[in-house]
């Protein structure tokens, strides 16, 4: 039986996550000649091969919550259950959690609203929202763009509230939506750039943040070289690296293993 797109999204995310766990925080220069080619273990987080991280756990929590409808409080409580009880973990252990995510989920446990629990600091650029937001695509895919933006923002700010993080999440799901709708990847890129720019240009976004967003919505990413791709945990750089790998490869396997 042919797998549904949502299954491919969830399994694909978890596999890519598990491939990356052993080398998290390592710089590209450290891995030269030792590129990841298969599941490895007992490195950065001392986990066995094939172990996925909070990226997948929170993704599964969100996906499960959406099966029961759109409820931010339910999402938040599933995140709490993950962090404090090991729910949806690969082996019962929570590891490698970013400070903003940890603090936000602790606030959720203490009764803070999901719309107020996140880190709203303007310099909170982490990819904690980006890593878990993919299941939302299958809920919002048929909504109009303003509704898609509103919902993506609400889910992102549960942990990360900076506009830069929100824009990265919005771009990510708009790009994924184009692929889901059958666009070839280069056409998906061009359509996403156009759609995202038209949506956000009237939203009173600070000029410095629009300047950062320009790399995604105006940049010619297909012409970049690998040395210009910065692989740190900032959300806008993470999605840029992911799109770069997709554009330069011909399959899922090639994309997730690309040095």
Molecular structure report:
This protein has 259 residues and is mostly helical. The protein has one domain (5-257): ADP-ribosylglycohydrolase fold (Orthogonal Bundle). It has 12 helices and no strands. It has helices at residues 5-20, 28-31, 54-66, 72-85, 99-109, 137-140, 145-156, 163-180, 185-200, 207-217, 235-247, 252-257. Helix 4 (72-85) packs across helix 5 and helix 8 packs across helix 9. The two termini are 33 Å apart. 37% of the residues are buried. The model has no long low-confidence stretch (mean pLDDT 93).
What's the layout of helices and strands?
Blueprint lengths: L4 H16 L7 H4 L22 H13 L5 H14 L13 H11 L27 H4 L4 H12 L6 H18 L4 H16 L6 H11 L17 H13 L4 H6 L2
Helix pairs in contact: 1-3, 3-4, 4-5, 7-8, 8-9, 8-10
Strand content: under 5%
What proportion of the residues is helical, as a percent range? 40-55%
**C-alpha end-to-end distance:** 33 Å
The general outline is globular
The fourth-level CATH homologous superfamily is ADP-ribosylation/Crystallin J1
Instruction: Return residue spans where pLDDT drops below 50 for at least 5 consecutive residues.
Output: none
Mean pLDDT: 93
CATH top-level class: Mainly Alpha
């Amino acid at each position: 039986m042919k797998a549904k797109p949502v299954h491919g999204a969830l399994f694909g995310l978890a596999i890519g996550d598990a491939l990356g766990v052993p080398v998290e925080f390592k710089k590209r220069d450290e891995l030269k000649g030792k590129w990841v080619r298969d599941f490895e273990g007992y490195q950065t987080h001392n986990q066995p091969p094939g172990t996925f991280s909070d990226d997948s756990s929170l993704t599964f929590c969100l996906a499960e919550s959406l099966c029961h409808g759109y409820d931010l409080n339910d999402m938040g409580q599933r995140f709490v259950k993950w962090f404090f009880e090991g729910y949806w973990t690969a082996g019962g252990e929570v590891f490698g959690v970013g400070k903003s995510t940890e603090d936000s989920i602790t606030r959720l446990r203490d009764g803070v609203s999901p719309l107020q629990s996140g880190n709203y600091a303007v310099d909170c650029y982490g990819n904690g929202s980006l890593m878990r937001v993919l299941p939302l695509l299958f809920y919002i895919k048929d909504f109009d763009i303003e509704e898609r933006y509103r919902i993506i923002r609400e889910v992102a700010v549960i942990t990360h509230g900076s506009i830069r993080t929100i824009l990265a999440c919005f771009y990510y799901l708009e790009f994924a939506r184009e692929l889901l709708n059958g666009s070839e990847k280069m056409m998906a890129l061009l359509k996403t750039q156009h759609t995202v720019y038209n949506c956000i240009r009237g939203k009173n976004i600070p000029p410095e943040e629009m300047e950062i967003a320009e790399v995604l919505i105006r940049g010619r990413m297909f012409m970049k070289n690998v040395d210009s791709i910065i692989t740190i945990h900032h959300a806008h750089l993470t999605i840029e690296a992911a799109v770069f790998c997709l554009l330069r490869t011909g399959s899922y396997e090639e994309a997730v293993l690309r040095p």
